[in-house]
């Protein structure tokens, strides 16, 4: 199935596995690549050395193109860009828009730049700066998300830019891929669907918790880090939603201490990041501290399997999923079903 995305990146199928922190490691990314999709390593939760090792491990597992998701505002962002260039990584994706000079540096080295955006104006900005494509996620998606559904956000972005647009938020099967292509998208990107595969390293008990949810099993909360965050409904999330300022601050400081111990970050660095997050936003100090150590909350759930102490980012599609296919089974089925639907539409007269 050829689209502008497959031509741009050199993959077989227009299906992207997003860079989910603590989830999108070498095993999942390489399995996606081997199945013909575009796998993206999540580097925001990795040190520089861990990212370097992850890139090398992924390359040892597959000869197919893959990408790395970067934080444009990370202290060592330029060093990580240099690493991608040196290791000849095919795609650099960004959750926050990279500046024009960073895009230019990657482009000059032959790296495809694909930022994730949440509004048409953001797509216009990065397209003007030289981005090769964009991923647009509607409100159905997991993690940080907006309030506009994919069915409305996607056409608004397609009307705004001429570069390839990849649709995310609410996709999980061939019907979704066919629909996205009908809108004019160049492919689909999925997070939760890939989290719930056999190659995903998320603990089995946590995967079971996802599969048990119905369509009302997620909630968008600002109590994790001050920004709208779609996560599974759990006792912890319910507690955060109902807790007062003192208990929220205590929990936030405790998690911050654990994150500092794990990553080696200094209190000064964490406070500086918290202040940067607070700037221009109406956040409580509990939310600022929680924002600075949200990766710790995600790790507790997605790595340690602690649904009692962790946050589990999830798209609404979790309520429609009931299996754990391999990446190859998933991608092959999605593409085959989409092709069948498109062929049927061609026969309609």
Question: Which secondary structure elements does this structure contain, and how are they paired or packed?
Answer:
Elements: H1 4-9, E1 15-17, H2 26-34, E2 38-42, H3 48-61, E3 67-70, H4 77-86, E4 91-94, H5 100-108, E5 112-117, H6 120-129, E6 134-137, E7 143-144, H7 150-160, E8 165-168, H8 174-183, E9 187-190, H9 192-195, H10 204-211, E10 218-221, E11 229-232, H11 235-242, H12 245-263, H13 267-278, H14 285-292, H15 294-302, H16 327-347
Parallel strand pairs: 1-2, 1-9, 2-3, 3-4, 4-5, 5-6, 6-8, 8-9
Antiparallel strand pairs: 7-11, 10-11
Account of the 3D structure:
- There is one protein chain.
- The chain has 349 residues and is α/β, with parallel strands linked by helices.
- It is built from 16 helices and eleven strands.
- It folds into two domains: 4-203 and 322-344, Alpha-Beta Barrel (TIM Barrel), CATH 3.20.20.70; 214-313, no CATH class.
- Helix content is 48%, strand content 13%.
- Strands 1-2-3-4-5-6-8-9 form an eight-stranded parallel beta barrel, surrounded by six helices.
- Helix 6 (120-129) packs parallel to helix 7, helix 8 packs across helix 16 (327-347) and helix 13 crosses helix 14.
- It is globular.
């Amino acid at each position: 199935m050829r689209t502008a995305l497959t031509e741009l990146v050199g993959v077989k199928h227009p299906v992207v596995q997003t860079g989910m922190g603590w989830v999108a490691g070498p095993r999942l990314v390489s399995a996606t690549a081997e199945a013909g999709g575009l796998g993206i390593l999540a580097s925001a939760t990795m040190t520089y050395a861990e990212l370097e090792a992850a890139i090398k491990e992924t390359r040892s597992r597959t000869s197919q193109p893959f990408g790395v998701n970067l934080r444009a505002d990370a202290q060592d962002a330029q060093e990580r860009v240099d690493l991608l260039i040196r290791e000849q990584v095919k795609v650099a994706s960004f959750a926050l828009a990279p500046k024009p000079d960073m895009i230019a540096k990657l482009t000059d080295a032959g790296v495809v730049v694909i930022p994730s955006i949440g509004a048409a104006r953001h797509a216009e900005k990065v397209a003007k700066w030289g981005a090769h494509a964009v991923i647009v996620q509607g409100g159905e998606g997991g993690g940080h998300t907006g309030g506009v559904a994919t069915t409305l956000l996607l056409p608004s972005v397609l009307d705004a830019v001429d570069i390839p647009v990849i649709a995310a938020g609410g996709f999980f099967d061939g019907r979704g891929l066919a629909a996205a292509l009908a809108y004019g998208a160049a492919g689909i990107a999925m997070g939760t669907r890939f989290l719930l595969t056999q190659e995903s390293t998320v603990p089995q008990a946590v995967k079971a918790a996802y599969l048990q949810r119905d369509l009302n099993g997620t909630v968008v909360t600002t109590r994790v880090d001050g920004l709208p965050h779609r996560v599974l409904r759990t006792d912890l999330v319910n507690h955060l939603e109902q807790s007062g300022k003192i208990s929220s601050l205590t929990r936030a400081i405790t998690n911050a201490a654990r994150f500092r111990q794990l990553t080696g970050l200094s209190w000064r660095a964490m406070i500086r990041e918290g202040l940067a997050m607070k700037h221009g936003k109406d956040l409580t100090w509990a939310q600022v501290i929680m924002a600075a150590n949200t990766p710790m909350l995600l790790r507790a759930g997605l790595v340690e399997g602690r649904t009692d102490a962790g946050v589990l980012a999830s798209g609404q599609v979790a309520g429609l999923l009931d299996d754990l296919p391999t990446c190859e089974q998933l991608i092959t089925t999605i593409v085959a079903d989409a092709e069948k639907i498109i062929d049927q539409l061609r026969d309609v007269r």
